[in-house]
Amino acid sequence: MKILSVGKEIKEIAKVEEKIKTITYGIDHVFFLTENGSVFYFNNNKLEEEMTSVGFTYLSIRSPINNKLRKIKIIESGFNIFEFSSFLLLVTTDNHIMISNNDKFHFEEFHYPINNEDILFIKTEMLSSLLIVTTNNTIYGTGSNNCGTLGTINKDIYFEKIEFKGGLIKDVKMSHHGSTILLDNNEDVYVTGLNENGELGLGDFENRFEFTKVNLNFKVKEISTYKDGLFILNKNNELYGTGYNMLGELGLGDILKRNVFTKIMTSVQKIYSTLINATALLTCNNELYVCGENFTNYQLGIDNNICKIEIVGEDPDEIRYYIDKFEKIYTFDRNLKYINVILNGNNVLVITNEKVLSGDEELDRMNYLLKIGKYFTKKFIV
Predict the structure, then answer these.
(1) Cα 29 to Cα 86: distance, rounded to the nearest angstrom
(2) Cβ–Cβ under 8 Å, residues 257 and 198
(3) 3-state DSSP call for residue 365?
(4) What pLDDT, on the 0 to 100 scale, is given for residue 317?
(5) What is the dihedral sign for C-alpha 194, 276, 344, 273?
(6) Residue 60, pLDDT score
(7) What pLDDT, on the 0 to 100 scale, is given for residue 331?
(8) Alpha-carbon distances, residue 105 vs 6, 88, 90, 376 (angstroms)
(9) CA–CA distance from 264 to each of 236, 267, 355 (Å)?
(10) pLDDT tens readout for residues 95-108
(11) No. of H helices and E strands in the chain?
């Protein structure tokens, strides 16, 4: 696998001889789970021009009883608002949950009263709420639940079994601020939680305290989130979104919030979840598009000079740059079978598992297409 950040120079940085199974990320770290049950990470914020070498760090997770290495089957990361750092949740192959709530990565075992059930998914909203889905289709919630993130009316719950009336759960995701979306094997979508910006797509702005089916006239194959909203991708590769849009996150050409799932674009292959007020998608032609807040110049691979400006508060110097329509920043080889995109730091990271560049001609083409990038392009081979 290769990791590329937007820029103008290709450099090989690191190599890990294991096949990657899952990628997740926090505000400043990117984590990789291999098929062998190992976990590696690197700090995204160190991908700067003066850096000549950035390597992966291996996380050694050992049993407190016999000190044996533990194999990991699930990783989940995000932004710990209390520590202002990345956190990492791990689930071992024998269903122990390990947690590190800051970027020191000192893990503690998280004890929970769920017996004889295999964990299928584990999701969290800034470490204040935790949702667990088991292989027998049972949902458990624990933690803060003030706006219904966990799908129950009760607040501050401890591993409560959550009622769900849909089919077998295929995927579940949480937005950064507490909206939860679930996809079942009937290709139906259910939502719960925060809805002050219309994030749930139910036609109003009222929070929900149970998983509520979204009435759609099509079947859904993929769900995704951004900081304050949700996306769904149907089986015809049509993208729909709902929620906060004050910085153009929905790519609809305006900054009006939506409270119903609104059609955005056709011929979309993949929509990527983010922790920030920005969005990235990949078309069926392997074209990479971005929109939303350009928090730092070139964060989205786009110069602030072509962005729109939002004045924050009464201070004319406190401005935010954004684009409210999807802008194409790169086209990949159409033969690539795997492309992943991460928006979490000061640049765009593109991850592929096949060869992207070969020879000076293609190198020059990459330099030309990404010439607006602020950072050198770094290459990781995994």
Answers:
(1) 6
(2) yes
(3) helix
(4) 65
(5) positive
(6) 83
(7) 82
(8) 28, 8, 11, 28
(9) 13, 10, 31
(10) 989 888 777 788 88
(11) 1, 30
